[in-house]
Design a protein that fits this description.
The chain is α/β, with parallel strands linked by helices. The protein is about 40% helix and about 25% strand. Strand 7 (about 185-190), helix 7 (about 200-210) and strand 8 (about 215-220) form a beta-alpha-beta unit.
Length: about 300
């Protein structure tokens, strides 16, 4: 029995369709079907009912799917545990963050960890918001820095602060003119794939109150690219206020009153508790000291 056969069968058990399952594991359908048949022959049991109205798991198939998940999960954990072994006597501490939050207190946090825990080898990776929790649960990360509250009781979260949101517009944008001089134009709303804030009704209401009229949306994958598009006059974007640290040339940031998001440190409950708690305290102290002074926000022009 080969591990790939278990992976293929798990895909088949999820989709109950060989075409979709084969596509998921990136092989053609004929060899996919042969591997499933070989697995059934080796186990001496039919795992799937193949009928005109579709596929279904047999009792043996349901058992194999459960055990295959356990086996493959154990192998993933083994690979991750080996990868996390100390390097030259230093334990690896893996941090994952959303793209925007890299430009917050992340450098200060890494500096603190290196001072307070010289035995740690700190690594940092960037992931979409929706991936962070799953990677934490799979033990691919030791700590995440994001803004999504978790409903998983196995995950412990510590709020560092609340981050305000602003609207980034190009210099010369109509919102910077007195109301009487504004043309009733529609704006292109730029969005980051990992942040769908512009679609949220809470954000949409704040944009309408500011006078933004969304004509269409443009999705990009990287914050720097999004801000470059704004500076070039291609559209506007809702961003955390800390985005002002990334770019100020060619962009004006307008406040969105009442729009906030938490900045959260997340870790598996019971894991690395002292490290995470110490980091949270250090970051809170830095916030209280307010060591970073952001460029001033602009106010929308008022009619005289």
């Amino acid at each position: 029995m080969e591990l790939r056969q278990l992976r293929y069968f798990l895909a088949a058990s999820r989709h109950l369709n060989f075409t979709r399952a084969a596509r998921e594991v990136h092989i053609a359908q004929p060899p996919f079907g042969r591997q499933i048949a070989a697995l059934e022959a080796e186990l001496g049991a039919q795992l799937l009912n193949r009928e005109a109205r579709g596929m279904s798991l047999t009792a043996a198939g349901a058992l194999v799917a459960t055990r295959a998940e356990e086996i493959l999960g154990s192998i993933r954990r083994l690979e991750q545990d080996v990868a996390a072994l100390p390097i030259d006597g230093r334990s690896l501490f893996r941090i994952g963050a959303t793209p925007w939050l890299l430009h917050g207190r992340m450098p200060d946090g890494i500096a603190y960890l290196r001072r307070a825990h010289p035995d740690l080898e700190v690594s940092l990776s960037v992931h979409p918001t929706e991936e962070l929790e799953a990677r934490l649960r799979r033990n691919e990360l030791d700590l995440t820095v994001g803004d999504e509250p978790s409903q998983d009781a196995a995950i412990e979260q510590i709020q560092i602060r609340e981050e305000a949101f602003v609207l980034a517009v190009p210099e010369g944008h109509r919102l910077l003119l007195p109301p009487a001089g504004r043309e009733p134009e529609e704006d292109v709303l730029i969005q980051i794939e990992t942040r769908k804030a512009g679609r949220d009704e809470h954000f949409a209401k704040a944009l309408r109150a500011l006078g933004v009229r969304i004509g269409r949306t443009l999705t990009v994958t990287e914050p720097g690219a999004a801000l470059a598009l704004v500076a070039g006059g291609a559209g506007v974007i809702v961003v955390p206020a800390l985005a002002r640290r990334m770019r100020s040339q060619g962009i004006v940031y307008l406040p969105l009153p009442g729009i906030f998001s938490p900045v959260l440190l997340s870790s598996l409950r019971g894991r690395n508790m002292a490290i995470v708690a110490g980091l949270a305290d250090a970051l809170r102290r830095l916030e209280a000291e307010n060591r970073f002074q952001a460029p001033p926000e602009a106010n929308t022009a008022q009619g005289s």
